[in-house]
Design goal:
alpha+beta, globular, 5 strands
Length: 131
C-alpha cells in the first residue's frame, strides 16, 4: 500500500507531535541532519518507517523550482521546508522508531550518480507556499 500524501498542515501536525516526544536532537546518527545531507552510514535504515509522502498522486511531474528566500540555500539548516517545491515535493516522510523524530528523504539523481539525501523535519521551518 503506497504511503499517504501529507499536505503542509498535516506535516506540521506530525512534526509537532514528533518534537513533543523527542524534544532534543536525535542521537541515532553522529551526522547533524538539520540541513540536507547525504544519508550517513551511521544511520541504521531499519529504524526508519515511512509514514507519508509530500508528492500528490495526481502530480505526474512536480516542479524543479526551489523556494529559498533571503540568503538561504539548498544546504542551509534554516532553509524553509516548502512541500510544493523541490526537493520536498519528491520526499517521503520517515519516522525514527527509536527516537520518534521525523525525516525527509529522497534520491537525488545526477548524470553518473545517485545520492540518497535526508533532512530532519523542524515544524517551525515548514511553510505552505503556493507555486
Amino acid at each position: 500500500m503506497p504511503p499517504d500524501f501529507l499536505d503542509a498542515t498535516t506535516l506540521i501536525d506530525h512534526a509537532r507531535r514528533a518534537e513533543a516526544k523527542a524534544p532534543g536532537p536525535c542521537a541515532c546518527t553522529k551526522t547533524p541532519l538539520d540541513g540536507w545531507q547525504s544519508q550517513p552510514l551511521s544511520l541504521d535504515e531499519t529504524q526508519l518507517r515511512e509514514i507519508g509522502k509530500l508528492s500528490p498522486e495526481n502530480d505526474p511531474e512536480p516542479t524543479f523550482s526551489e523556494y529559498l528566500p533571503g540568503k538561504t540555500n539548498y544546504w542551509s539548516a534554516d532553509a524553509p521546508i516548502a512541500p510544493r517545491y523541490f526537493p520536498y515535493n519528491r520526499c517521503g516522510v520517515w519516522e525514527c522508531s527509536v527516537c520518534g523524530r521525523l525525516y525527509l528523504r529522497y534520491t537525488e539523481g545526477g548524470g553518473y550518480f545517485v545520492d540518497r539525501r535526508i533532512r530532519a523535519v523542524s515544524a517551525n521551518l515548514i511553510e505552505d507556499v503556493p507555486l
